[in-house]
Amino acid sequence: MGGMMFPMMSTGAINSILFGIYGNHLRQLRRVCHSDYQREQLEYHNMFLAGSVAGFVQSFIACPMELIKVRLQTHCYYNDYIYGKRRTAFGTFKRILKNDGISGLYRGLLPMMCRDVLPYGIYMLVYRQAADFLDNTQFVRKRRAHPDGSNINLVVTTFAGAWAGVLSWVCVIPFDVVKTIMQADENHKFRGILHCVRVNFRAYGWQSIFRGSWMLLARAIPFNAATFLGYEYSLELCHNY
């Protein structure tokens, strides 16, 4: 359970930033369109672009947080039982600054951007396309006002969010593995992405860059379903007020 409290506190903030940037940029792109027809034709294109921009911006904010999380999770056992001292998020932050400076907080940024920029565009696009498809099938009820006044279809949002999460993660698992390996490396054993991949490939084979794939995909289903449910309900609540 090492490092659990810190990601619990930071995940909500990161998602708020991500969806906030996405929503604002999408509105700006819609305003550029000169007609309703053009806006409708470019809607999916704009969603992909807005998602990619949101992923790019949030990667600079999320990278230090993920770095601290990885260090806490991969070194908590070592510190607890060898040195008898448990690391804290703030202590890890100070240690990184002391040893590596500000740049040390952005170790693994490049593979993280490969994981987040275009995949977040895919993430947002797939969610909307899946939701629109499910809304128009005979197997799922179309959105309509619920007794509580909500216009959100629970089934549509859940399945579309889960599918978007799985599909976007399938494309980026190797980048996430490389990012995590580089961030866990406090001794700077790896000089970059290619060096990290070569070292692990020679030592463990091609399977090394797909470690944890099934767990990531299994986590993506409930996590992203819950994420989009929270996003849709929060957005509706904000619109009502």
Structure description:
With 241 residues, the chain is mainly α. The protein has one domain (5-240): Mitochondrial carrier fold (Alpha/alpha barrel). The protein contains nine helices and no strands. The longest helix has 41 residues, at 43-83. The chain is globular. The two termini are 39 Å apart. This is Solute carrier family 25 member 45 isoform X2. Belongs to the mitochondrial carrier (TC 2.A.29) family. Keywords: Membrane, Mitochondrion, Repeat, Transmembrane, Transmembrane helix, Transport. It holds the Pfam family Mito_carr.
Present the secondary structure layout.
Blueprint (H helix, E strand, L loop, with lengths): L4 H28 L3 H6 L1 H41 L5 H12 L8 H27 L18 H17 L2 H12 L8 H12 L8 H28 L1
Helix pairs in contact: 1-3, 3-5, 5-6, 5-7, 6-9
Pfam families: Mito_carr
Keywords: Membrane, Mitochondrion, Repeat, Transmembrane, Transmembrane helix, Transport
InterPro entries: MCP (IPR002067), MCP_dom_sf (IPR023395), MCP_transmembrane (IPR018108), Mitochondrial_Carrier (IPR050567)
Proportion in helices: over 70%
SS-based structural class?
mainly alpha
Text of the CATH class: Mainly Alpha
- Rg over CA atoms, rounded to whole Å, is 20 Å
Number of individual domains: 1
The helix count comes to: 9
CATH topology: Mitochondrial carrier fold
Write down the secondary-structure element order: HHHHHHHHH
| General shape | globular
Termini separation (Å)? 39 Å
Q: Mean pLDDT, as a whole number?
A: 85
Strand content: under 5%
Low-confidence stretches: none
The biggest beta sheet is recorded as: none
CATH superfamily: Mitochondrial carrier domain
CATH architecture assignment? Alpha/alpha barrel
- The strand count comes to 0
Subcellular location: Mitochondrion membrane
GO biological process, one term: mitochondrial L-ornithine transmembrane transport
GO cellular component, one term: mitochondrial membrane
Protein name: Solute carrier family 25 member 45 isoform X2
